[in-house]
Design a protein that fits this description.
Blueprint: E1 9-12, E2 18-23, E3 29-36, H1 50-58, H2 67-75, E4 80-85, E5 90-97, H3 101-113, H4 119-138, H5 140-152, H6 165-169, H7 173-183, E6 189-195, H8 199-209, E7 232-237, E8 243-251, H9 257-271, H10 277-284, E9 289-298, E10 303-311, H11 316-333, H12 337-354, H13 358-372, H14 378-387, H15 390-401, E11 406-412
Parallel strand pairs: 2-6, 7-11
Antiparallel strand pairs: 1-2, 3-5, 3-6, 4-5, 8-10, 8-11, 9-10
Helix pairs in contact: 9-12, 9-15, 11-15, 12-14
Length: 425
């Protein structure tokens, strides 16, 4: 395979900010982001949701810009400015035409270095975030996923990223400012950009970021502590017509790169896309479900493999048994050579396609740096995938799938079921 892409320049600045840049001369856009190594996993029962709430508040105004002047200059030129909070990071990003990269950088830097946090804005945003929490509870997938990880991930990783109405209602200016000062520090900060940028702009941004409040020491983000005993949950909801099911099992972390990449390849084969094993055999051939797929979420030390399905409540047992049969067949016989070749090419293809966009590239690099604490150049990832053998995939799928599975059902209120049949091999 011949693949050419500009290498990512990567360094730790003198104030311990992690900095990276990638030139994409063929692009007419630039994506930039400040990522802070803080998320819901550092929170407790009192301040649950504060990372996400702070993300909202920073957009309300800085010492030099009001909320309108933060957003309008970027949206006026067709760009996008936004942020998201996860369990180990909060990311503020912009994607703009290359001619507006400098203005976007100035706005992002202002956001994370000069917040106002006015009391009136905090009270107003409590209403907004409370509505977001209510909306999330209305979404069946969000509800079944949140209910599962709350029980499955026993440390703070299981906490809801949005927090609760109770915790959000108690946030005050002082607690938010204290949290900002404690966590928005240079040793937790990652800045990156990818797109049509030149050396002069790279030098200018480095100089600016080097002035960010200096703090020493490396920050290591954590990983979920996963409960060993199987979790079985049944929840019911009014006005629900379909049964939502979520099967989950402990899966590899990223520390072992070989196992991580091999299981990613398996996930592609098993439940990613309409050609996957479970979509083809359970949805297309039997029509048992409206949708079924799998997802592999992995941190440095641990990960979790999820299978989600949406079906008629009358089909619950059939879906469970068919899924059990598919997994049991893989444990006994492994994947075929044809499936392996398909999965490897699809995995590489999806990775290569992602390099066409500046924002997908930026997001992948940030995720790699925060969780792996290092940068892996894309040609090395492709080489690693090429070196995976079918035996590697079969070995890790057996090791993972033979564990005791967790099962969560979210069902229409009238569904008559009071226990879950174990999922063990």
């Amino acid at each position: 395979m011949i693949f050419r892409e500009e290498k990512v320049s990567y360094e730790i600045l003198n104030n311990n900010v992690t900095y990276f840049a990638q030139k994409k001369k063929e692009s007419r856009t630039v994506s930039l982001a400040f990522a802070v190594k803080v998320g819901s996993s550092v929170e407790d029962d009192v301040n649950n949701g504060i990372s996400h709430f702070l993300e909202h508040i920073l957009f309300k105004g800085t010492l030099t810009r009001n909320a309108y002047n933060i957003k309008e200059p970027i949206e006026r030129v067709g760009g996008n400015l936004n942020a998201y909070t996860g369990r180990v990071s909060t990311v503020f990003f912009a994607k703009v035409p290359d001619t507006y990269a400098e203005e976007a950088f100035d706005i992002l830097y202002d956001l994370i270095s000069n917040p106002m946090m006015m009391k009136d804005d905090i009270e107003l945003e409590k209403t907004v975030v409370t509505e977001e929490i209510a909306f999330s509870k209305d979404d069946p997938f969000d509800q079944i996923y949140d209910n599962t990880v709350e029980k499955l991930w026993t440390n703070s990783f299981g906490k809801n990223i949005l927090g609760t109405k109770e915790t959000v209602s108690k946030f005050e200016q002082k607690s938010l400012m204290d949290f900002f000062r404690n966590y928005y520090t240079s040793n937790r900060l990652v800045f990156g950009m990818t797109g049509n940028v030149n050396d002069e702009f790279i030098k200018k941004t480095k100089e600016k970021i080097s002035g960010y409040n200096k703090k020493s020491g490396n920050i290591h983000v954590g990983s979920p502590e996963i409960i060993k005993s199987p979790v079985y949950l049944i929840n019911k909801k009014k006005d629900l017509q379909q049964a939502h099911v979520l099967f989950s099992v402990e899966a590899p972390g990223r520390k072992n790169q070989k196992n991580f990449e091999a299981f990613k390849l398996f996930n592609i084969i098993f439940g990613s896309g309409m050609s996957s094993i479970i979509f083809h055999n359970i949805r297309e051939k039997l029509g048992m479900v409206y949708n079924i797929d799998s997802e592999f979420i992995s941190y440095k030390e641990s990960g979790t493999f999820f299978i989600s399905a949406l079906t008629n409540p009358k089909n619950l047992k059939k879906v469970r048994n068919k899924l059990y049969s598919e997994i049991n067949n893989l444990i006994k016989n492994g994947i075929t050579k044809e499936q392996f070749n398909y999965g490897r090419e699809r995995l590489k293809g999806k990775l290569l396609i992602s390099t066409e966009g500046t924002f997908p590239t930026l997001s992948r690099i940030i995720d790699d740096i925060i969780i792996n604490e290092r940068l892996i150049q894309i040609e090395h990832i492709l080489k690693f995938i090429d070196e995976i053998k079918i035996d590697d995939v079969n070995e890790i799928l057996i090791d993972t799938l033979k564990k005791s599975w967790n099962i969560t059902y979210l069902l229409p209120e009238q569904t008559k079921i009071d226990k879950i049949e174990p999922f063990e091999f």
